[in-house]
Write the structure tokens for this entry.
Amino acid sequence: MKWEVVIGLEVHTQLTTKSKIFSPASTAFGAAPNTQTAVVDIALPGALPVMNRAAVERAIQFGLAIGANVKRRSVFDRKNYFYPDLPKGYQISQMDLPIVEGGVITIQVGLETRSINLTRAHLEEDAGKSLHEDYQGMTGIDLNRAGTPLLEIVSEPEMRSSAEAVAYAKALYELVTWIGICDGNMSEGSFRVDANVSVRPVGQVELGTRREIKNLNSFKFLQQAIDYEIRWQIETIEDGGRVVQGTVLFDPDKGETRMMRSKEDAHDYRYFPDPDLPPLVISEEWIERVRSELPELPVAMQARFIEQYGISAYDARMLTSSKILAAYFEATVAAGADAKLAANWIMGDISATLNREEKTIADCPISAAALGALIARISDNTINNKTAKDVLKKMWESGATADVIIERDGLKQESDTGAIEAIVDTVLAANPKAIEEYRSGKEKALNALVGQVMKGSGGKANPAMALELLKKKVG
Amino acid sequence: MLTIKQIIDQLASGETTAVALATQYLDRIAAHQHLNAFITVDREKSLAQAAAADAARAAGDTRPLLGVPLAHKDIFCAEGWKTSCGSKMLDNFIAPYSSNVVERCDAAGLVTLGRTNMDEFAMGSSNENSFYGPVKNPWDLTAVPGGSSGGSAAAVAARLVPMATGTDTGGSIRQPAAFCGITGIKPTYGTVSRFGMIAYASSLDQGGAMAQTAEDCAILLNVMAGFDERDSTSLQQASEDYTRDLNQSLAGLKIGLPREYFADGLAGDVRAAIDAAVAEFKKLGASIVDVSLPNTQMAIPAYYVIAPAEASTNLSRFDGVRYGHRASEYSGLNEMYEKTRAEGFGDEVKRRILTGAYVLSHGYYDAYYLQAQKIRRMIANDFQAVFKECDVLFSPVSPSTAWNLGEKTADPVAMYLEDIYTLGVNLAGLPAMSVPVGFGSNGRPVGMQIIGNYAGESRMLGMAHQYQQVTDWHTKAPQL
């Protein structure tokens, strides 16, 4: 039987507010346990939540960025359950009336572009942490994280493979970090993914029974977990078994998913509107102000790059994979570099070297201005491409500018026709066979000889000029 | 005994001092412990606060209420004070922060004489649900003082304190004020900040003032009321002087008598006392109109769905994890929760948590909680309709005078039904007060309820004050 996979994702993004969603305590990561807790976070008797407008503003930014409906009125609900790291005995969330409804994320898998629809995004508070180690059989509770603002972003079940799910998660990640509502620090839990996975025979309309894989905090684990889960579900059904709706955890060491609880054990959360918080009403003015302050979004920027710089769609997409990379590219061009060359260099040597050194573009030792100046020297024929690669390496190591290195090391390319002509003559004399091939119509035969001319010149010959001379002499 | 007005004058003139007053009242509290009006009294702490007030006054501090004593209901967190809310659950809880109400009282220079007894988590109409035992009605030690602010009402009635804070979720200021023959006001929902006031039912809870006279209530409400950004339901309104209308004439005032509040079930002696008070108001220039609040009966079921629903989750934080009672022996997390809450909560609290969890649970929510919210809106609309015909409503506070201790404890529903005249006000968020208007055939006090429209407190207090200028019910004190 042929199987179709159905995946929907719920992503918890931690918002970049300084204080918590309902209390004035700091959200900074890594402080000593229970030091970042106001009366609300410990849920002392009489403590009351107060909405943090900065969290609301980030939700509005997100809604506008994905073309969603930002609700003028949304409601906070209490989700009731007992757990030691949930100090109030309920989580404040949004159930029936979330702040954001709808919206679209565009993903690219291979050559195909797809639009994934979002169901909703809602504001809620994070819980604290239970610490099971180091307490001699007891459990410690750290409430620093309790009350950290989260935007839970829920997609429609429209993804059909782990590759699409990862592409969606990455696109979402790029967007929330691009607009600055999430710091994207996955190892600190700033971006956590739950994947709802089911399978059904191809052609069947009705959805299969889903299982939800909880708390995946890397794209790699997301892919592995979904792939395992798909295999497990298909095998289970094909072996005559039945998928039971429930929640599973992914064990990265074993590469397996494991049942945590079935739907039968699910809580009745007894949702109801939180009487401590009036409905969240957002004015047109507020929405318009946020809209006017939104940065240019990746999709719009890609279109502009293609139009303004004449680069390919692929290059435009790669260069807008992060805001800082896009800014680096534009600054390189502004410093005098040809746009296509700038794109090639940034996605080629610069990216490769950064990857090798496990750095990001933010830590790049070569400034956009310096790279722009280097590329300008290629365009004005001061150096050739190959020399430029060496210059870049030296710039990376020493921090000196391209011009200083070119001058100091005498790397200026040879454009003196007389000097190159002598080398061309030597090379032609040694390669009669290539001349013959060229004359018989094999245009490329001479290209191989350019390399020899370059070698003969110690890399300094202008390759275009060398080719021209070769053709002239042979032709 | 002195009113707040008189105390302010005596302190200003130097006739008395904060320490002398505190000592005098603390002695009286100590002499009347059998009333069980207080959960905590800390003589040393109170006298230190009084001495500080005297020192400030000597140094030129002119805050008018500096050194005036009061008591707080044990529901308002006060830094350094045990704040038990009448529950074993919080018997060991020393509040690490102060509620907005306590902060405001402290900032005004008021001296805290102690923490008054109350029904556990403010759930009750007789003060018999306190972990610390029932409060006795100073007028008759075999009678209940009313609840849940029974300790505050009894303390003021017995002149153990000149005034006290209270809270009112379904009548918890007005009913004990009526049963104990004092004046008490629950302002418009949102007038007094709930920050630091331990929640029973958040959408209904409201702090207020209890004292001998309407004027004293106005003075205390001036201290307690005001916008607080830490309570999202706090009203953003210009600050109000609740004494401003005290001397306003009642000529032309239109008083509505909702006929459903005078129907079967109202005791004859209560009715007679109210009728006499209404006659006094006519003499003061008011006219009477007959009005109808058709959904009055539905207030009881609506209230006993909404309040328990909110309470069931408000009280989830009492889990034994971070503070308060924790069972001493348990195995595993669930047993820790179960035993802690089974031991820490009393019967009425458990009853309301269970009711609340039930009405919010899957499959029942629409039938109970949503229906109750619809009724709530209908009741609020009824009030708005009658306020087109009249300025205020007069009614009894309770169908009868205070009942006997133990009389209704076996039948919770019978006790719920006693709240018929007070619940609608909370559901609508309106201001209402209780004014002493006489005594029943058993010699126990009768209170009359004045219900105003939103933000009508000053006018209501003015009416009560004018009435108290021509009557002396509010000056009567029990023989102890």
Notes: The interface with chain B takes residues 39, 42-51, 78, 80, 82, 84, 87-90, 141, 268, 270-272, 275-278 of chain A (CB under 8 Å). Chain A has three domains: 3-288, 296-408, 417-474.
